[in-house]
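Hey L., structure's done. Input below.
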Amino acid sequence: MRPDVVIEGLRGNIDTRLRKRRERGLAAIVLAACGLDRLGLAHEIGFRVPIEMMLPEVGQGFLALQTRASEAALLAQVNDEEGLRVLRAERAAAGTFGGGCLAPVAAHAEPRAGGALHLRVWIGLPDGSATAGRQR
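Output:
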């Protein structure tokens, strides 16, 4: 999208990445806005990349709670069945195309009227030389 931009790796937690941005004089870094929002750091967001421009990693924005099986019923009241359906669709798309830590696959599902889902998928070669996108 921006051939004038130099892309380089940046590791660490959010605080570390924000510090490195300042120390290294980077014009921008890409972080998940949902994480910055949750941490009260929304003021650090200069631009929210729209879904139409770049799909997020599968499951971005979802929270998971884990408990003992004997106490699972206590968490049932905070479960979001529609959200779980969306997450499962995104994960299924990523799994279909071999997505994971080593293969660049992104997917974003949105509920539609009548129980349908609008699913967008982005697939890239591991070396970044080619990509493809598809909507269903």
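The chain has two domains: 1-48, 55-135. Strands lie at 105-111, 117-124, 131-135.

-- N.
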